[in-house]
Design brief:
single chain; alpha+beta; six-stranded mixed beta sheet; two-stranded antiparallel ribbon; 6 helices; 22% helix
């Protein structure tokens, strides 16, 4: 990782406009979202394929590709790809907790990439491809960490090393900077475009916390098929 004092300086305002609406879901890309909506930020390699995984989940209100976890304010894609901003390619996932719980979202996260690879994902190498979860509510931390421990047992049983996923509250990871319009819902606009994501062949357990340990907003029924 680049050190803060070595990071690119960035800028004080976005270098490009961000689209208003989600091309697939029709919802606002930046907000406002319905009352009661919750959000989490997930990084699992190239954000093109990652974003599509989450917009397909029932109960997800909006998704967006962006940059988070680094030092450079308002970076561009080219800057992030140098590794000199410290950011990872992240996806903002906004969801309705009455329709889908964070646990189901994390299940999709764990099962669709290899979280043991450190600063890479397959052939994509660099700190911008590291795996990460940034939660927005302190009540979510216990669930995030419990899901990590549960899935770490699974990957170990499959002969892989320990999970390297970065776990931090979003307040520590810093601002989520929306990526350029070209990247938003990229695989909807480019159906044959590059995608480095898919089932990793491992199943993430759900119900990893006792009911009295799960935050109230997570007591939801699994989404119907």
């Amino acid at each position: 990782m680049v050190m803060p004092e070595q990071a690119l300086p960035g800028r004080t305002a976005p270098a490009y406009p961000v689209p208003t609406n989600h091309d697939v879901l029709g919802s606002p890309l930046i907000g406002p979202w319905p009352e009661g909506a919750r959000s989490v930020y997930l990084a699992m390699g190239c954000f093109w394929g990652a974003e599509r995984i989450f917009w397909r989940l029932p109960g997800v209100i909006s998704t967006a590709a962006g940059y988070q976890g680094g030092y450079t304010p308002y970076p561009t894609y080219e800057e992030v790809c140098t590794g000199l901003t410290g950011h990872t390619e992240a996806v903002q996932v906004v969801y309705d907790p009455e329709r889908i719980g964070l646990e189901e979202i994390l299940k999709a996260f764990w099962e669709n990439h290899d979280p043991t690879q450190g600063h890479r994902q397959g052939n994509d190498v660099g700190t911008q491809y590291r795996s990460a979860i940034y939660w927005t509510d302190e009540a979510d931390e216990a669930l995030v960490r419990a899901s990590r421990e549960a899935f770490n047992t699974v990957v170990s049983e499959h002969g892989l090393g320990d999970i390297t996923t970065e776990l931090r509250p979003a307040s520590q990871a810093g601002m989520f900077y929306y990526a350029e319009a070209f990247h938003q819902q990229y695989l909807e606009k480019n159906p044959g475009g590059y995608c480095n994501h898919g089932p990793n062949g491992m199943s993430c357990p759900v119900g990893v916390l006792r009911q009295d340990e799960v935050p109230a907003q997570q007591h939801v029924a699994p989404p119907s098929a």
